[in-house]
Structure formats: C-alpha cells, structure tokens
Design brief:
Blueprint: H1 9-14, H2 19-37, E1 44-50, E2 53-59, E3 68-73, E4 76-81, E5 102-107, E6 112-120, E7 123-130, H3 147-156
Antiparallel strand pairs: 1-2, 2-7, 3-4, 4-5, 6-7
C-alpha cells in the first residue's frame, strides 16, 4: 500500500483551531507506517458494543499480564508488550509463535476513556467508553419567556 506525506502548512496559515485535526492526521499516517513496519503484530479487532462503548481485542498469546502495559497519554492509547527473557535453551524445529516485544498505539477521539482491561485465553480486551459532557449533549429548548430577563426586571422594580 502506498503512503502519502502531507504538508499541513497552508492549513496552519489560514485556519484557526484545526491544528489538532492536522496533528491527528499526521499521527495516523505515522502509525500506519509503524503498522506496516511491524506487519500488524499483534493482530487486533475493534468492536462497537453500543452507541458509546467500544472494545479492542488483541491476540497476545504467550504474554503474561505482568508483561503487558496499558497507558493513555495525550489522547493516545498505548499498549506495550515486553517479553521477559527466558534463559531456557530450546531447539525449535519450527517457531511460528511470535515472542517479540511490541508497541501498539490507538488515537482516541475526544471524550473517549479506557474503562477496564481483562485477559482471557490469550486475548487482551480493552474496554472504552465515550462520555459526552453534559454541555455537549442535545437538549431541548423551551419556547417561552426568558427567565433571566424576568429576574432582572424583578431586581430593578
């Protein structure tokens, strides 16, 4: 797959407040290059569980819970797998199970937070939820008298 490098300088010169979007696009392009370099290891799924609930499931066979780290930083979910060194000498005829370290990054949208993580049968499940602030939720505006104006009129009388 072909990747493109974008120059967002014209956007910065003429648009106010879109720097976060440009940064997001740049980081997505960089993370795509990282995925291509790592051959998509470890594989993962992203599920929509409900309108505002998501789950990332990663196949982390061979990793123990204490060899995995999950962190959110500046709107990015980072999952690290650090395999402990095994001093046991082994003679493989074929080694198809990857035992290498990894770092997987996911860009989180505004108001999305991690609510928990579990391990089950070699799968790491990370649950996320979008919590829309009360001020941004749709609300119905009643048509009628303005209560603020009524209060000011009562004070002035």
């Amino acid at each position: 797959m072909r990747t493109f490098d974008f120059d967002f300088t014209p956007l910065y010169r003429s648009a106010i407040g879109f720097d976060r979007v440009a940064h997001l696009l740049e980081s997505m392009n960089a993370s795509h290059a990282q995925v291509t370099k790592n051959n998509g290891y470890p594989p993962y799924n992203i599920e929509l569980l409900d309108d505002n609930e998501y789950r990332i499931t990663m196949a982390v066979a061979g990793f123990a819970e204490d060899e995995l780290e999950i962190e959110t930083r500046e709107g990015v979910l980072i999952v690290l797998g650090k395999k402990k060194t095994d001093e046991t000498e082994r003679k493989y005829l074929y080694q198809g199970i990857a035992e290498r370290n990894f770092e997987r990054r996911f860009q989180l949208a505004d108001y999305v937070r991690v609510t928990g993580a579990t391990m089950d049968n070699g799968l790491l499940h990370i649950d996320l939820e979008r919590e829309i602030p009360e001020a941004m939720k749709p609300r119905k505006i009643n048509i009628g008298q303005n209560k603020l104006l009524e209060a000011e009129a009562a004070e002035g009388a």
